[in-house]
Amino acid sequence: MLAEIGPFQALLDAIGWLLAWLYDLTGNFGIAIIILTIVFRVVLLPLGIKQIKSMQAMQALQPKIKEIQKKFKGNKQKIQEQTMKLYQEYGVNPLGGCLPLLLQFPILIAMYSVIRAPVPLPPDPETPGVVQFKDNHLPEDSQLFRDITQHEGRGQHFLLMNLQCSPQQAGKTVQVLNTEREETGDSLDCGDSIPDRIPYYAILLFMIGTTFYSTRQTQKATPASAQNPQTQIITKVMPLMFGVFGFAFPAGLVLYWTVSNLFQIGQQALMLRLGHIGPQAMDRRLEAGKAKGSAAAAKPRSGLMGRMMERAEQERKRRLGEPEPLRKPPPRTPGKGTAGTGKRRGTAGSGSSGSGRSGTGKGGSGKSSKGGSGRPKGSGPNRPKRSGR
Q1: Can you tell me the distance from the alpha carbon of 119 to that of 148, in angstroms, rounded to the nearest whole number?
Q2: For residue range 363-379, what is the model confidence (pLDDT) as tens digits?
Q3: What is the pLDDT of residues 71-83, one digit of tens each?
Q4: Which residue intervals of the chain are DSSP H helices?
Q5: Contacts of 37 (CB under 8 A, 6+ apart)
Q6: Is 0.70 topped by the overall pTM?
Q7: How far apart are CA 30 and CA 23, in angstroms?
Q8: Which of 154, 232, 165 has the alpha carbon at shortest distance from 197?
């Protein structure tokens, strides 16, 4: 489904071209995958660092979030409001740790689409002898495309494994099927004995172990009081999930994920040594985030996110029945009939002076007493009407 989208199709073709170029350069499929994995990790390095810091900031706020949940137990709306207020106070984005992680999945899907062997289409009677393939993202004139589709050469082997084979297929010869699940006559050599399965199972277990160690390494850098029980469950379940998927995926994809885990482990170890992550770094980051959040709150909110926050605050006050701040009326400029600053205009027949003292009108003509600002001339009840008004 994703391959039908234009930008994603272009991404697949670009990765296929780069992988084929690295294969021509190195002559080995496994080395080309390792180099390509390192290139991806270096490109995504800023997002990876941001992900680690954001996840640790979220974990550091867990004790405060627990206090909010305990204080407003049973009031989900209040808990949500106070939690968002806490994030805003410390300048923490709750999606900051998830977004970089989600960006890695399209790369993983792209690598799977490129590494797996292209699936041949059924023979076309109009073009006998010509084999066409579905879901191919490799340049058809490249050496990698010829080696993978013809299942020849030793360049696709790495550490005694055929990287097109999965651990599930290890130790046996697999018939290549076309899109209609019919045998094409070609076969994939994945070994012929039980010892041939050992490298496939070993790299699968190594992938599971590095995934577990990478997530465990992040937890060790976090104080026990700030650890989330849900995160601990994910730490135990996620490696097993990748193990189940990796058992049916080509060994080349398992190699990619293992190298990616090793890069992540080295990155986190270096950040720990430099003091960018860890309990002390978390405290410094929270204080800096709190100061940044306070400065941002003092400024008028602008942009789409600012307008959304203001609307949410107005809606919250409306539900709680809080009065909106009163707007000051515009200053009244002295009119033509006023006499001095601060004096009120006299009304017909009232005879009130501009200073607030009551006077006596003359003959009900509406003129005020001496010193007042009476009704302008011609404003009495016998004022002639103007036509056309």
Answers
A1: 11
A2: 444 444 444 444 444 44
A3: 888 888 888 888 8
A4: 6-26, 29-43, 45-60, 62-71, 76-90, 99-115, 143-150, 198-220, 229-248, 251-274, 279-298, 303-320
A5: 256, 259, 260, 263
A6: no
A7: 9
A8: 165
